[in-house]
Amino acid sequence: MSMKILLTGAAGFIGYHTAQKLLAQGHEVVGLDNLNDYYDVALKQARLDRLSGREGFRFVRLDLADEPGMAELFAREKFQRVIHLAAQAGVRHSLKDPFSYVRSNVTGTLTVLEGCRHNGVEHLVYASTSSVYGANTDMPFSPHRVADHPLTIYAATKRADELMAHSYSSLFGLPTTGLRFFTVYGPWGRPDMALFLFTRNILEGKPIDVFNNGRHKRDFTYVEDIAEGVVRVCGRVAQADPAWSGDAPDPARSRAPFRLYNIGNRQPVELMRYIEVIEECLGRKAEKRFLPLQLGDVPETCADVEDLVRDVEYKPSTTVEVGVRRFVEWFCEYYGYRR
Predict the structure, then answer these.
(1) Which pLDDT score is estimated for 306?
(2) Beta partners for 29?
(3) pLDDT classification of 194: cutoffs 50, 70, 90
(4) Which helix (H) or strand (E) holds 179?
(5) What integer is the mean pLDDT of 140-164?
(6) CB 100 within 8 A of CB 88
């Protein structure tokens, strides 16, 4: 059934791919973005240009923290469902400009929650992050275990989003589902991400920074698999769990219509192997500059996604060998590099 959906962050990396899938299913998509200059606005505009020609897509340029503007948008459009992906991204940048993260990720999410509350939205799906697990080391990371030790302000704002969502589910009966993304990569990715930086520097003969001396492991998840999961979850409205107990509270569920899921590939890959795949795709070797673990970083991530598999038949299928090759092909074509 076709629905009218607000998609925030539509000009962003994950937002762009999610919009493509929603449009392919025949939904009416109102894409919102403020087109800030955290990274190359031309890349964001190029994504939008590819969406703007699609039937059923409209773009609204608006800042999430604009309370009157957001209230007017919700009241005018009467969305059936909302997919909230817009955020100030980037773990490293949150150490330099923490206030921008609170404005975008906390205040911005609050305006979305208020819009949903007052306008009869059937289901809010919002982006969280594996970074909320922070100091946790019990692998694989499970949404059923407490994640209250974030190591960066970015992670703290995303955990705040989850807590605010639960309060709205509890107080107002608003169905909300949070998705903790694990290391998303692929075509049209952000320029501040490792795959983008590694590929560009290798092509230009510059060294790449390999943190934690290459001993990282990441649950690299291809963007198309992420977008597929987002769309599937949007179609499954969060329900209250009548068996939930405050005596032994499950963080991923509630007696309110609230859910938390991990969304990852379930196959952690060593950073050095990831770099090897990039080198193979480019036909060039990287000059590596080995460095210690960065402040606020964690050595390993791995997602327990059994809930998502059970509830929406989420089946990530893209290996890093396939996903990195697709990224490299896009990168070289878009920026005009020769391999």
Answers:
(1) 96
(2) 5, 57
(3) very high
(4) strand 176-181
(5) 96
(6) yes
Give the angle 175-101-167 at the CA atoms, nearest 5°: 25
| Catalytically annotated residue among 39, 154, 168, 314 | 154
SS3 annotation, 30-41: EEEECCCCCCCH
**What DSSP assignment string belongs to 103-149?**
IIIIIHHHHHHHHHHHTT-SEEEEEEEGGGGTT---SSB-TTS----
Q: Which residues contact 216 (CB under 8 A, 6 or more apart)?
A: 270, 271, 299, 300
pLDDT at residue number 294: 85
Dihedral angle of Cα 172, 177, 180, 184, to the nearest 10 degrees: -130
> How many Cβ atoms are within 10 Å of 1's Cβ, its own excluded?
7
Tell me what the pLDDT averaged over the chain comes to: 95
CB–CB of 115/30 below 8 Å?
A: no
pLDDT at 299: 85
Q: Count CA atoms within 13 Å of residue 272 on its CB side.
A: 7
Q: What is the dihedral of CA 274, 279, 285, 291, to 10 degrees?
A: -20
Structure tokens at 117: 């509350």
| CA 178 – CA 132 distance, rounded (Å) | 12
Are 26 and 2 a contacting pair, CB within 8 Å? yes
- What is the structure's pLDDT at 53? 83
Q: How far apart are CA 161 and CA 169, in angstroms?
A: 12
Q: In the prediction, which pLDDT does 89 show?
A: 83
For residues 25 and 231, is the Cβ–Cβ distance under 8 A?
yes
247-257 pLDDT, tens digit per residue, is 999 999 999 99
For residues 8 and 83, the answer to whether their CB atoms sit within 8 Å is: yes
Structural contact between residues 301 and 268, judged by C-beta atoms closer than 8 angstroms? yes
Query: How far is Cα 146 from Cα 163, in angstroms, rounded to an integer?
Result: 12
The backbone torsions φ and ψ at residue 103, rounded to the nearest 5 degrees and listed phi first, read -60, -50
337 is catalytic: no
| pLDDT, average across residues 113-130 | 98
d(CA 256, CA 205): 54
The answer on pLDDT for 140 being more than 80 is: yes
